[in-house]
Predict the structure.
Amino acid sequence: MRPIQAKDPSAAAPSPVPRLSASSDSSPRAKRPHQPHQPHQPDRPDPAADAFDAVDADVAGAVGGALERVLADRLARAGALDTLFTVELAGRVARFTREGGKRTRSQLLWWSMRACGGGDGPTVAATLRIGAALELLQTCALVHDDLMDGSALRRGRPTLHADLRDRYAGSAPADRTTRFGEASAVLAGDLALAWADDVVAETALDPATAATVGRVWSDMRTEMVAGQFLDLQGQLTGSRSRPQALRAAHLKSALYSVQRPLALGAAMAGADGRTTRALCSAGRCVGMAFQLRDDLDDVFGDPRLTGKSCGDDIRNGKPTYLAALALARAEAAADRPAMTVLERALGNEDLTPTGLDGVREVLVGTGARQAVETKIARLSARGLRHFDGALPDSVAKSRLRGLLTSATASRATDGPPDPVRPAPAAPPEGSAAPENRR
């Protein structure tokens, strides 16, 4: 594997604008002078191995530590600008990021790097910083996603735009405080994205690794925006196209949640092209299964496990594969009651819990829930086949495989459903059958 080397500090032109402060862990590393070969001394501990072992024991905690250093630096810079901005906006961005979930993406990054044989001490700090950047990018995505969906809860707490709206309740008419919360959430997401980009740009990498990481990072950001736009466009037009639903899910979540973190880890380790391609194939399949699971959990999931209220995708009329498949099956069976339930529920912001129960019955009765479960299982199995052939066996490979497996686990109160009675086959994807649109 290619070792990570330091940037040459003299290669960068001095900034014409003074920085607000300097980050203690982002300056380029000085190149070490050549050392003559020394015989192996087994009684001398290997600092690089110690560093890897420490992170391996608690990856989420290690990423959290790197994130704390990044956030402390960014908040200090924000404080040099304005105290109110720091407390009200930058502080909320930092708190939202600190209180993140399982840090799954940064864990995928770390274990991908480890499984690909990343093997020198500086790789530890660099990979953890890229992991911190992923967490900030996740903050941007979630804050904006909650805003666009009008969600009230995230991780069991008020969403950022709702928190800011409530913070200023009573200081102005309700419509103005609502608009303030929404506009501020846009700025909060933008700030998280800017911080994430800064962290990647300021992480010391050798030129080849920096180029690869930069390409993956750039592609990932554009894919996220493209997928989110297709999601919004599908909501607006009432699209029930299954191919379009899968395309939006692939761009919005599958790539970003699994494939790109794996690719970043491979880049940090200097993995060869064959290994990287196999990991990306695995990530593409598991990532799509992950999004399909998220669609199921939105309807059938336990809010105590998902941290979100149930049915938001239905109420927002999101063009999910689950909803499109259920509607297609109901149409193929000429099941008018089921079609009516779905047509009345999809996009109905006032859908009651009883109405959501009716949607659940249709999703089960048409066989759509079981069909999506089957698709998840097949995608996961295909992804793991790609993965198993990509890397030699190791503890790191086993840990990474476990993460990929758990990414598609159900968070429903009743677990995956038992097989239901066979439902009439839906029209093949891409057929000329007319699509229902609201």
In short: Strands lie at 153-154, 157-158. The longest helix spans residues 207-237.
